[in-house]
Design goal:
The complex is a heterodimer of chains A (188) and B (687). Chain A has nine helices and no strands. Chain A is an all-alpha fold and 188 residues long. Chain A has helices at residues 4-15, 19-38, 47-50, 56-69, 75-89, 127-134, 141-145, 150-164, 170-184. In chain A, α2 (19-38) crosses α5 (75-89), α4 (56-69) packs across α5 (75-89) and α8 (150-164) crosses α9. With 687 residues, chain B is α/β, with parallel strands linked by helices. Chain B is globular. Classes of the chains: A mainly alpha (188), B alpha/beta (687). Chains A and B meet through α4 and α8 of A and β11, α17, α19 and α24 of B.
Chain lengths: 188, 687
């Protein structure tokens, strides 16, 4: 699970870390890449993997489902693969793909270039939380693309935070839902 | 037109005067020899020629067509000629027909309506059930069935469901079912005929066509070239031409349908032919049954055996034809003797021909097996190819493929094949075994088999441990996880329960979390993947196996395709079936595939087509409307009590539906968004 404060610490550590950590990372990277390129490409290519971001819970759900589908991994390899996926395609790993133009019915406008990935989030209580958490895995235009009902934003928020492995209090979660519903809400 | 006092003798001795007709003639007047002048002609038809024609028609095998043609040549009008032919037909003796006393016991001449002849021939074919939703044109068949208690009618209220019931019955029994529907119902039936075609299921499907005289007139409910509508999904399609031809065509239909590789057959019988009376032979179908237990080419067996004997890392791909050939025990023995692991593909196979908890069973075919190393020889026993999952389409370059199939059309259709054999699977396994035995000294064979079996068993045990760990990880998920549901069901259901599967998202879990095999649970699905098969198919399986518990595991998508209509038959026929509806309000895997393209749908998070909520259907309520009890299962804690109630219901002889709410998984799974369109808001007046 990833409290926001610990993420900041991790970012600092990333810039200055001992050789042993680097070596461990390299080993993980090598083995993880091997697993990705052998086990995970039995039935599909890499694009569905490279174009999403997930925390450990999210990648665990995905890998478990693939094991049920039939890929051959033992218990240790499952954990190695999940660790690798979190390292390569986890929160903070950059926005995986640009959405292109906002679709009809979207709320908001792009800042900067016409087809950029970011829109300026409207000001309001909860904006900072949404900016901090949601944009770790995707750009803000994804939030604006499809207005949703309050119930749907509630489910989405719980699902995203859960998969991302973020530790967020109930109050903060509620604030996020209220912000999204009020600025990107829909009756249907 | 029937004439009073008219019999064959009197007809033969009739003293005919030449007859010409001015219009619709009076048959009685013809018999009395009254002469009617044809307008504008003074010629008379010679009496001897007329009598000769009649004698030839009745005694010497002159066809009806030629009889009519001859009468026409003598100046008799078409209407009068047809009336004469109809009158004489019951008394026609085929040239050379033996006397009844000379016929073998399995040939029974019979005079009756077309419906009666059909029913008699069906009985001679061993048919116990007629699957029907009949039309009025088939009334002569229904009339005939009134006095034939040995044939039970099974009615469904939608033709696709009816066909799926018959299809499943055929898979479970190996028998060829007879299906009778109305002609406008044929397109409905074809939705499930697709599955039967894909899976080589035998069946004879019949409709009543428009009357002979109306064919081609764009008549009521007529379709031009109706039989050819089924061409791509039948082995044979035919339209019967005469009433006396009904038994012969029926026998031929059963012969085509049941001869391996078996497949559906379609026949159309014009309604008037069913109503008319004729004499024909009803013959036991046994004399038209072909054994297709063909032995393999010895040279091909020798080549295949050499490859297998020399293989470092062989593998067996087991398919549905193993079951068709009753080769399950032979396959198991062969695999164990040589230590060869067995795989299958969920998406091209509908049966489980190898016990799924056996140490040699590796589950889904993978083109590169990570734990066993590169496969060098792959023995395909009865599986369709190509396989449908991703890289499974491609064969690795080093794989030498041996294929043994009943169906020559699919054999070697895509992949280069070292040895291709068309033969009975069981006979081929036996031949291979004998050949390989001669190539490898028994000591070496045992040693290699033991080594391989040990390696595979170690891996399959690890895989089982992984699958069990996944259940534990997701045990308390909310919404309920499929893994938990299936493991609870496996523990609670009777050991010999037959699972009938019809869903996309959960098929892998259905494969992994139940124990299947000869001493464990049974399994039926279909590899055509036209959804909507499962609910009616469960009925067909139960009909074939009344003493085994039957549980259908179908998705909400599948149930919406079939609709609740199968439940009508569940209630009507008191069929104790548990219908478990895996309800995640979505075509879940369809959505995942669409989103995996990473196109605009994924980018915007908009699921245009797959979310099935709004309305959120209450399936338990729907079931109650059809006379089937049921309940919703909303959480993991509700699973066991609900299953207990369903087991009690079926023990009491009643069906039971469980609407089990499970989670959506994968890409954009959380979304309940769907394109909103409100027709009511378009109104300008409140109607």
């Amino acid at each position: 699970m990833y409290p926001a404060s610990l993420l900041s610490i991790a970012l600092v550590l990333f810039c200055v870390h001992p050789a042993s950590l680097l070596a461990a990372e390299q080993e993980l990277s090598d083995e993880g890449a091997m697993l990705l390129h052998t086990a995970c490409t039995q039935c599909h290519g890499l694009r569905p993997i490279e174009t999403v971001r997930n925390g450990r819970p999210g990648w665990t759900q995905t890998v478990d489902k693939m094991v049920v589908y039939g890929i051959h991994l033992d218990v240790e390899e499952i954990e190695t693969l999940i660790d690798y996926l979190v390292l390569q395609y986890g929160p903070g790993g950059g926005s995986p793909m640009s959405m292109g133009s906002l679709p009809p019915g979207a709320v908001g406008e792009y800042s900067g270039s016409a087809n950029g990935g970011e829109i300026l989030l409207p000001e309001g209580e909860g904006q900072a939380l949404v900016q901090a958490y949601c944009s770790l895995c995707h750009d803000t235009s994804r939030i604006a693309a499809t207005p949703r009902t309050t119930d749907s934003w509630k489910q989405y928020t719980a699902d995203m935070l859960g998969k991302g492995g973020f530790e967020v209090s109930q109050d903060q979660q509620q604030l996020i839902v209220e912000y999204l519903s009020s600025h990107f809400g829909s009756e249907h | 037109m029937k004439s009073a006092g008219c019999d064959s003798e009197s007809l033969r001795n009739i003293d005919m005067q030449p007859v010409w007709h001015e219009g619709p003639g009076d048959f009685e007047e013809i018999l009395k020899g009254e002469v009617l002048k044809n307008e504008g002609s003074e010629e008379m038809a010679p009496e001897s020629e007329m009598k000769g024609l009649i004698m030839d028609f009745m005694d010497n095998g002159l066809t009806r067509r030629n009889f009519l043609s001859g009468l026409s040549g003598l100046g008799v009008s078409s209407i009068a000629a047809n009336a004469l032919a109809d009158e004489f037909t019951p008394f026609v003796t085929r040239a050379g027909d033996p006397e009844p006393a000379d016929l073998p016991h399995w040939v029974k001449p019979m005079t009756g309506t077309g419906g009666e002849l059909l029913v008699a021939q069906l009985k001679a074919a061993g048919v116990e059930f007629i699957f029907l939703n009949a039309s009025s044109g088939e009334a002569p068949v229904l009339d005939a069935l009134i006095d034939e208690p040995s044939i039970q009618i099974i009615k469904a209220v939608q033709e696709g469901s009816l066909l799926a019931m018959a299809d499943a019955y055929a898979r479970a029994t190996g028998k060829t079912p007879f299906v009778m529907i109305a002609r406008p119902g044929l397109p409905n039936a074809m939705s499930m005929m697709f599955n039967a075609w894909r899976d080589y299921t035998p069946m004879v499907v019949m409709v009543d066509d428009v009357s002979i005289g109306s064919l081609g007139q764009d008549a009521f409910e007529e379709m031009d070239h109706m039989t050819s509508m089924t061409q791509t999904m039948t082995k044979w399609h035919w339209s019967v031409r005469t009433t006396e031809g009904i038994p012969e065509t029926t026998r031929r239909a059963f012969k085509f349908a049941s001869t391996r590789p078996s497949r559906p057959v379609f026949i159309a019988i014009p309604a008037d032919l069913l109503a008319n009376t004729a004499t024909a032979a009803v013959i036991s179908q046994d004399h038209f049954t072909i054994s297709a237990r063909i032995g393999p080419d010895p040279d091909a067996v020798a080549r295949a055996a050499a490859l297998l004997a020399g293989a470092e890392n062989p593998m067996i791909l087991a398919g549905d034809e193993v079951g068709y050939c009753q080769a399950e025990a032979a396959l198991l023995s062969f695999a164990e003797k040589y230590g060869i692991p067995v795989v299958k593909s969920n998406y091209v196979a509908w049966s489980k021909p190898f016990p799924t908890r056996h140490p040699l069973y590796l589950g889904e075919y993978q083109s590169t097996d990570r734990f066993l190393g590169k496969v060098d020889v792959l023995l395909n026993l009865g599986s369709r190819m190509p396989l449908t999952r991703g890289r499974g389409f491609q064969m690795e370059a080093q794989v030498q493929l041996i294929q043994v199939r009943l169906d020559p059309d699919n054999l070697a259709r895509v992949y280069p094949t070292e040895v291709a054999i068309v033969a009975d699977i069981k006979r081929t396994i036996e031949a291979l075994d004998e050949e390989i035995d001669g190539l490898i000294p028994s000591g070496r064979r045992s040693r290699v088999a033991k080594q391989r079996t040990g390696r595979v068993s170690e891996f399959s045990a690890k895989r089982r441990a992984v699958l069990d760990s996944i259940i534990k990880k997701h045990w308390a998920d909310s919404p309920l996880s499929a893994e938990r549901l299936m493991s609870e069901m496996d523990a609670m259901l009777h050991e010999d329960t037959i699972i009938v599967g019809d869903n996309d998202t959960f098929m892998a879990a259905v494969d992994d979390y139940f124990r299947y095999g000869p001493e464990a649970k049974g399994f039926f699905a279909n590899a055509g993947f036209a959804l909507g098969w499962g609910a009616p198919a469960a009925f067909g399986i139960k009909l074939a196996n009344p003493d085994r518990p039957v549980v259908a595991l179908i998705s909400d998508g599948s149930f919406l395709f079939s609709g609740p209509q199968p439940l009508w038959s569940y209630a009507r026929y008191r069929a104790p079936i548990t219908l478990v509806l895996l309800n995640n309000l979505s075509y879940n895997n369809e959505r995942n595939r669409i989103m995996s393209r990473r196109g605009r749908s994924f980018q915007t998070g908009r699921d245009l087509a797959c979310y099935l909520g709004d309305p959120d259907v209450d399936y338990a309520m729907v079931a109650k409307g059809f006379g089937v009890d049921g309940e919703m299962v909303a959480s993991a804690a509700d699973v066991r009590p609900a299953l207990e109630r369903s087991l009690q219901a079926t023990a009491d002889g009643r069906s039971y539906l469980l609407d089990v709410r499970v989670g959506r998984t994968g890409s954009v799974a959380t979304s309940t968004w769907h394109p909103f369109y409100d027709i009511a808001s378009l109104r300008t007046r409140k109607v």
